[in-house]
Amino acid sequence: MADPAHTGARLVVLGSAALTEGFSLIGAEVHPDADPAVVDQVLGQLVGDGSSALVLIESDLSRAGGQWLDRLRNEGGHIVVTELPSLSAPERYAPAVDDVVRAVLGPEALL
């Protein structure tokens, strides 16, 4: 098992090949054309390894959910998961936090 204190945090990106290609250029661990099963597998491995990681997931994959994805969102900790807009439809991107902001501040908060 790797010691995250000595190896540093990992940057993991899951999504379309077009999205992950750029991240591979900066040395990120990429999983191009991942599906929800791959997301769950990768997240499970990160938890099992005790890794510290920033995990970036394309929005469509992020909304598919999964055992490990749901667990990490609810628990927090040494693995931070966030979503990225799709390159093919960035105008459709609406982060999940928007719903929370509207619930707290009202429906016109983000206009």
Task: Describe what this molecule looks like in 3D.
44% of the residues lie in helices and 20% in strands. By secondary structure, it is of the alpha/beta class. The chain has one domain (4-105): Rossmann fold, CATH 3.40.50. Strands 2-1-3-4 form a four-stranded parallel beta sheet, sandwiched between helices. Helix 2 (17-25) links the parallel strand 1 and strand 2. The longest helix is centred in the middle third of the chain and has 14 residues, at 36-49. It starts with a helix and ends in a 6-residue tail after the last helix. Residues 1-6 have low confidence and may be disordered.
Strand order of the largest sheet: 2-1-3-4
Number of helices: 6
What string gives the helices and strands in order?
HEHEHEHHEH
Outline, from the CA principal axes?
globular
Work out the count of structural domains. Answer: 1
Secondary structure: helix percent = 40-55%
The CATH architecture can be named as 3-Layer(aba) Sandwich
Low-confidence stretches: 1-6
* Total number of strands: 4
**Mean residue pLDDT:** 83
Question: Approximately what portion of the residues adopt beta-strand conformation?
Answer: 15-25%
CATH class: Alpha Beta
Instruction: Give the class from helix and strand content and strand pairing.
Output: alpha/beta
Terminal Cα separation, in Å?
47 Å
| Fourth-tier CATH superfamily name | ATPase, V1 complex, subunit F
Q: For the report, how would you describe the main beta sheet?
A: 4 strands, parallel
Indicate the CATH topology: Rossmann fold
